[in-house]
Amino acid sequence: MRATGIKPRDVIVCCLKNSIDSIIPVLASLYLDAIVLSLNAVLPSSHCAHFISTTKSKLIFVDEDAVSLIETSLAQANTATEVVVVGESSKYKTLSDMVMPREEENEFKPVTVDNCQETAFIYLSSGTTGRPKLICLSHFGLVNASMIFRNVLDAIDSTTPMVSMHFASLYWISTVMIVTASFIKGDTRVVPLKIDGEQILKFIETYKVTYFLTPPSYAHNFITVSNFKNYDVSSLKCMLIAGSRVSPQHLTRVASFFKDTMVTEAYGTTEAGTLTAEISHPRLGSAGKCVEDMEIKVVDVETRKLLGPNENGEVCFRSPYAMKGYYNSDLSIVCDEEGFIPTGDLGYYDDDEYLYLVGRASETFKYRSYFIIPSDIENILEQHPAVKEAIVFGIPHETDGYHAAACIVLEHGANVALEDIEGYLSERVMEYQTLRGGIKFINAIPKSPTGKNLRRSMPEIFEKLPNK
Asked: What is d(CA 295, CA 360) in angstroms, rounded to the nearest whole number?
């Protein structure tokens, strides 16, 4: 990379799926004090063009099956940024070309980072409400966030290296934290190239995997493998479920399969890494307690008044390891007067300071004078044995504000009438939570590249779905 003219503070794009080699350009960038911008191949080309142009990216590493996306993005950005392909290519330089042995590499010394508060990574926000924002994370923040994640894992075993497995690409901050935490302790990393429930069980058995972090949807894939009992998963000491909402029922069901494993929920954001976790004494339904150097407060969504224990509001955090700000702007436009950053997540803490998440502030809506929190209804729907996943959203109404509606993904082979689902729900919710907008079946719920439900797109999708 240095031979191509890369200098400190240049921006390097990595648009790479999960693989053993994907960490190579990331580490090389850090050794040169360059900045890593992580993109995902499922992003629209217009978004990629905007990010490449805005950051004046100097080099792009991309998987061979995503080259066309980058070519379209570069054309839209009207720039000729150099492209390096991870895989085969007759048109562009490849990563294999770049890692060929060179005489001068024996004399290589990493660039000294004089200011640890400088940006090391640029990550994208969730993008659930529009085009993602560019989040800047410093060397200081990311190293310490990774150390904190390491400390969380040390509650499992602080004496010996472990075997980690990560499913997400480096587009996720959690993957960088897992990789860095692995380097700190000398852990072995297992890197699946695709997410297949049975293959993951084979990997756990074969490589004696001791921990991994997974979104709820992947955890569901593992426990629905028909011959689950044929695999020895006893080496797995900890499964952290994070990234999106997880119901207590789902957590309990996963734990019933992984009997020798601590299955627990954790909570983090791209803006700060891990906020809460609890390995030693988890509580069902809770995302745990604050990690080191993390402060959390809960405020009223409308008045911003500070709330106490067991009062629902927006979760805000403050940490020396938090994001520096958005690209080309500092934290002042994000923080409140006390330096807390709002997460957009709704939740509360109990008398023992365990945090409980109930939804997103942007996802709530009003039916007449009642606030409806979608996750309250989703949790009930997902307790039905035929329901794999549910998403609740508001349909605009002329006089009532919004009517709650839902789309449901059924378990494989399930055969149930909508009327049965409606009857099941009506017996378990308040009158104002009734799904006046209706219920429809859907094959899959649309998600962002980070696995979050794209709730804002659901009213339009719902309208086009057939009535059954």
From this structure: 19
Percent of the chain with pLDDT over 70: 98
CB 349 within 8 A of CB 298: yes
CB contact at 8 A, 341 and 294: no
**Torsions phi, psi for 147 (to 5 deg):** -65, -40
Q: What pLDDT does 447 receive? A: 84
Considering the domain 139-321+332-361, what is its CATH architecture?
A: 3-Layer(aba) Sandwich (3.40)
| pLDDT tens-digit readout, 353-390 | 999 998 888 888 889 878 898 988 999 999 999 999 99
Mean pLDDT of 169-177: 89
pTM, entire model: 0.82
Domain ranges for the chain:
2-112, 139-321+332-361, 364-464
Closest CA to 252 of 222, 284, 224: 284
Q: Distance between CA 140 and CA 145 in Å, rounded?
A: 8
Task: Report the DSSP pairing between strands 82-86 and 262-265.
Answer: unpaired
Backbone angles phi, psi at 465, to 5 degrees: -75, 145
- 2-112 CATH fold: Rossmann fold (3.40.50)
Distances (CA, A) of 84 to 16, 63, 123, 253: 11, 9, 20, 44
Matching fold, domains 139-321+332-361 and 364-464: no
d(CA 265, CA 354): 11
Distance CA 77, CA 325 (A): 24
The CATH code of the domain at 364-464 is: 3.30.300.30
Q: Are 249 and 263 in contact (CB under 8 A)?
A: no
